[in-house]
Amino acid sequence: MSKNEPANAQSEATTEIRSLFSEIYAAWADNDADAFVAPYRDDATVVMPRTYHRDKEEIRSSMAAGFQGPLKGSQAVDEPVSIRVIGGHTAIVVSKAGILMAGEAHLPIDREVIATWVLVRQDGRWVVASYANAPAH
After folding, report:
1. Diameter of the chain by CA atoms?
2. What span, in angstroms and rounded, lies between the C-alpha atoms of 117 and 102?
3. What is the CATH number of the domain that holds 45?
4. What phi and psi values does residue 118 have, to the nearest 5 degrees?
5. Would you state the pLDDT for residue 7?
6. Structural domains of the chain, count
7. Would residue 111 count as lying in a domain?
8. Which domain range does residue 64 map to?
9. Do residues 56 and 63 lie in contact, with contact meaning Cβ atoms separated by under 8 Å?
């Protein structure tokens, strides 16, 4: 939010954004690719090492395959370290994140990433426009 926008609006947006993250990662824990991408725009993009998904369907297909294979039983961890709301309708979130594979209790340091989320306010709620991550170490 800009200096002219009230702090309570920033606080409300932050609460809504944290709720969005909870929704996304509850769907991950359920291995539900459709629910996982429900809060993504149709033209959302995902960029990660060796990966570029160009739209919501590519993201959904990739997650569905992952949930049936190597990500089955996994859990994502994602803790926002910075949430900046710009103009009341765009948010940039930087987070520390990673994937706990089935049976793991702690995230190995070599799988920690720094993620950047671009969120937009659409139809009264925050949705994912873009996600990117890079190794933290």
Report:
1. 48
2. 25
3. 3.10.450.50
4. -115, 120
5. 73
6. 1
7. yes
8. 7-135
9. no
In contact, 89 and 121? CB cutoff 8 Å: yes
What pLDDT does residue 1 have? 47
CB contact at 8 A, 61 and 36: no
**pLDDT at position 79:** 95
In a domain, residue 20? The reply is yes
26-65 pLDDT, tens digit per residue, is 999 999 999 999 999 999 999 999 999 999 999 999 999 9
Specify if 2 maps to a domain.
Answer: no
**pLDDT value, residue 5:** 54
Both tokens of residue 88? 């009341």
Cβ neighbours around 93 below 10 Å, total = 24
Whole-angstrom CA distances from 23 to 49, 66, 109, 128, 137 are 24, 18, 25, 12, 28
Tokens 């710009």 found at:
86
Task: List the structure tokens of 116.
Answer: 């950047």
Residue 89 located in a structural domain: yes
- Distance of alpha carbon 117 from alpha carbon 12, whole angstroms: 18
Given a cut of 70, the residues of the chain with pLDDT beneath it are 1-6
- pLDDT at position 6: 64
